[in-house]
Amino acid sequence: MRSGPGGSPELIRVRNLRGGYGKLLVLENVSMEVLEGEILLIVGRSGCGKTTLMNYLLGLARPWAGQILYRGSPLVFDGPSSLTAVRRRWGVLFQSGALLASLSLLENVALPLTEFTELDASEADLVAMSKLALVGLEEFADSLPLEVSGGMQKRAGLARALAMDPDVLFFDEPSAGLDPVTSGELDELIRRLNGDLGTTMVIVTHELASIFAVSDRVIMLDAEEKGIIAEGTAHQLRDSTGDERVSAFFNRRPVAGGAAR
Fold first, then answer.
1. What CATH number does residue 36 fall under?
2. Helix (H, G, I), strand (E, B), or coil: what is residue 24?
3. In a structure prediction context, what are the per-residue pLDDT tens digits for the chain, which is 261 residues long?
């Protein structure tokens, strides 16, 4: 397996990716890597292609051109079944948490275990309870999603994403809809789980506080460039970049010299 910067092995590699929607080109000639064990943040202003790139990484859409490799093997977009085995090595936390309202938190977390493993119901419940304990929700195992707070729903969604012991966790705007304190608590949990479990994490966000709190490395996209305009640590991009668009984003100020783009 190839190694990325710093000697860490590459888990995912993107080569010359191009894509968009209909006739709208969103990303062009995007190349990047996700390193084993890191927390990589994909950031940028609204409309820059963050979610589009995430969808390609997850195999939810076929890129127009380019290649995505997972552990050195190309993802094959020949239909839903072609990516099934790979997707079972991934966990995803969506913005809403995406919990089933009619199931308890325990049942939600156990669902992928009963669907995709040979564990019986009692075994799946034991594993699910251990995942709820990881996120501090074991006392709320029998609660329905609507009976707990938004922050607890996000943590339950995270427990479900961890149910299959994934190689990599994908987060789509994990702090969306949360107050600053709850958002900070979720950031601490993400950082702790990465340290304790060593799980690789890819996070799409525009929340500056979270970017500085959890990231090992940051990739910034730009809508006009249709690709990556900066890469490094959050502090490097805030303090050392010569690109006004990057500096403005990380210092939370309007782009100098004209209207926001």
1. 3.40.50.300
2. strand
3. 444 445 568 999 999 999 999 999 999 999 999 999 999 999 998 889 999 999 999 888 889 999 999 988 888 776 655 667 777 788 998 776 689 999 999 999 999 999 888 889 999 999 999 999 999 999 999 999 999 999 999 999 999 999 999 999 999 988 888 889 999 999 999 999 999 999 999 999 988 999 999 999 999 999 999 999 999 999 999 987 788 999 999 988 887 654 443
- Amino acid present at 4: G
CB-based contacts of 168, cutoff 8 Å, min separation 6: 11, 12, 34, 89, 90, 91, 199, 200, 201, 202
DSSP string for 71-109: TTEE---SSGGGGHHHHTTEEEE-TT----TTS-HHHHH
Domain that holds residue 147: 98-165
Written as six digits, the tokens of 75 are 């993802």
Contacts of 149 (CB under 8 A, 6+ apart): 182
Whether residues 147 and 203 fall in one domain: no
Spatial CA neighbour of 26 closest among 57, 64, 60, 58: 64
**What tokens appear for 257 in the block?**
């010299």
Residues 6+ apart with CB under 8 A from 229: 220, 221, 222, 243, 245, 246
Which one-letter DSSP state was computed for residue 255?
A: P
- Contact predicate 15/70, CB 8 Å: no
